[in-house]
Amino acid sequence: MTKKIALLGSTGSIGTQTLEVVANDPSLEVVGLTVHHNIDLLEEQIKMFHPRLVCVMDEKKALELQERVRAQGIKVEVLAGMEGLIAVATMEEADTVLTAVVGMIGLLPTIEAIKKGKVIALANKETLVTAGELVMGAAKAHQVSILPVDSEHSAIFQCLRGNEHQSISKLILTASGGPFRDYTKEMLQDVTVEAALKHPNWSMGSKITIDSASLMNKGLEVIEAKHLFDVTPEQIDVIVHRESIIHSMVEYKDGSTMAQLGLPNMMHPIAYALYYPERKPTSCVHPLDFTKVSKLTFDPPKKDLFPCLQLAYDALMVGGTMPAVLNAANEVAVDAFLKKQITFLQISQIIHEVMARHICINRPSLDEIIGIDEWARVMSRQEVQKQ
């Protein structure tokens, strides 16, 4: 039986790897694709995968793509903007919606897909960070499965299979530590954008690579883990594992620990989510050769040097709209750093300032979360201008 997939964010790192998995298996079919603006690559994907519906967030680029496919006689419907993104996420023929867009933009289409009963393969961190309670509540109400695509959450998901929830002692998220894991605070003062984008283990998009360098990526994953696995913040630990072979672990109350191991690439968690509950072989995923693993090292994270991790824990403990503020401030600050408007260390300073100015709303509605997200972005841009 063919599994039909709507892929949100098809030209990014996760999106392109997802299509590589699909290309190697005729039992997987792409019915919808979305991109932000990269219509050159999207055009190639349309020719290869023949989706019925695509969306380009940039309306001018969408019109340009429409002209291109019409001139070539390619049968595909091209939509634009948030309405188009939601239309792809809610396609009647789609079984699974894999959300690989970056940022808050993934929230609304994911919620609408849940309402339509779609299985959600979730690679968009911001969906659960900003509105975890609402999203998980909607999934429960509509009896929808949310399958994590992040390597860390996929690892925990796999380690939990067949075990009772009440047996969990703690979840242990592993972190590579990023390119600056051996730096001092003095060294961090002068790091460049180019250096921050050179991740030692993973090949990712620019935003998530900067988040990895600041450990905010791990902080966002802590918040996600709380919602995905229904545990308390105190039950989530982070440990630096330089080799990125162990993708995360679950410690149980009887003292045993289960870990999921693999090479540092995203093909396995993507394939695991697409094939779940089966485990199917794919030519894209290669098993780990233990004779080539010389050592596995573990260290505590340096929260004093990388305060973004603690800020994420703080936001999670406060709850309500505070994680949405954390996320929005981080998105603005990271963008400013990539544009060389602020320094690396100022990323966490801006987030801290905006969080300190926020009066938290407990149990917010979706509209309140969206409103607070906009407020936090305005405040963050003001902080950037002060630097």
Automatic annotation (TrEMBL):
InterPro entries: DXP_reductoisomerase, DXP_reductoisomerase_C, DXP_reductoisomerase_N, DXPR_C, DXPR_C_sf, NAD(P)-bd_dom_sf. The keyword ATP-binding does not apply. Pfam families: DXP_redisom_C, DXP_reductoisom, DXPR_C. It catalyses: 2-C-methyl-D-erythritol 4-phosphate + NADP(+) = 1-deoxy-D-xylulose 5-phosphate + NADPH + H(+). It comes from the Bacteria. Pathway: Isoprenoid biosynthesis; isopentenyl diphosphate biosynthesis via DXP pathway; isopentenyl diphosphate from 1-deoxy-D-xylulose 5-phosphate: step 1/6. Residues 5-132 form the 1-deoxy-D-xylulose 5-phosphate reductoisomerase N-terminal domain. GO terms for molecular function: 1-deoxy-D-xylulose-5-phosphate reductoisomerase activity; manganese ion binding; NADPH binding. Keywords: Isoprene biosynthesis, Magnesium, Manganese, Metal-binding, NADP, Oxidoreductase. Its cofactor is Mg(2+); Mn(2+). Coiled coil: none annotated. 1-deoxy-D-xylulose 5-phosphate binds at residues 125, 151-152, 176, 199, 212, 217-218, 221. Transmembrane segments: none annotated. NADPH binds at residues 11-14, 38, 124, 126, 205. GO terms for biological process: isopentenyl diphosphate biosynthetic process, methylerythritol 4-phosphate pathway involved in terpenoid biosynthetic process. Catalyzes the NADPH-dependent rearrangement and reduction of 1-deoxy-D-xylulose-5-phosphate (DXP) to 2-C-methyl-D-erythritol 4-phosphate (MEP). Belongs to the DXR family. This is 1-deoxy-D-xylulose 5-phosphate reductoisomerase. It comes from Holtiella tumoricola. The gene is dxr.
